[in-house]
Amino acid sequence: MTLLSPELLAHIGDTAPQRYEIATRRDIRKYAVCTAQTMRKYLDGDVAPPLFYIHLFWEVVELDQLSTDGIYLDPLIPKLPLERVMAGGLEIEYFRPICAGDELVATRTLTNLYEKEGRSGQLIFYDVVMDVRTASDEPVLRERATRLLR
Length: 150
Fold this sequence. Notes:
alpha+beta; 4 helices; five-stranded antiparallel beta sheet; 37% strand
C-alpha cells in the first residue's frame, strides 16, 4: 500500500516564501555565549559560529501552534498520512561566514518526498533544501535536511 498519492507528490518543488533576517552583533554574541564558544571572533560578535543561522530562520510561534511532540508544523510540508516527525540527517555546505550586519535571505524548497518500509512499518521521508544568500545575492550556505515520519 502506498502512502503518497500523486497529489502529495505534486508538492515536490514547492518553495516557501523567502525569509529576511539581519545578523546582529548582539545576537551573534548571545549565541556564542549560550553555545560556550571560545574564539574571540564569535564572542565579540564579529563572525557567527557555524550553526548560528539555524535559529535565525526558525518561525517564532506560540505554544498552541506546536504539535503534541513540540514541533512547529512547517507549512511548506503538505499534510502527510504519518505524523511522528524525526530527524533523518543534515548536510551543510558553507560558502562564507555570516558576519555582523549581514542582511540574509533564506529560500526553502521541498526537494523530495518518498516512502520506505522500516522495521516497525512504513516511513515517509522528505528533503528540504535551504539556500541562504546575502541581500546582494552572494551565497552564504546551503542546508539539506531530511526528516522522516512514522
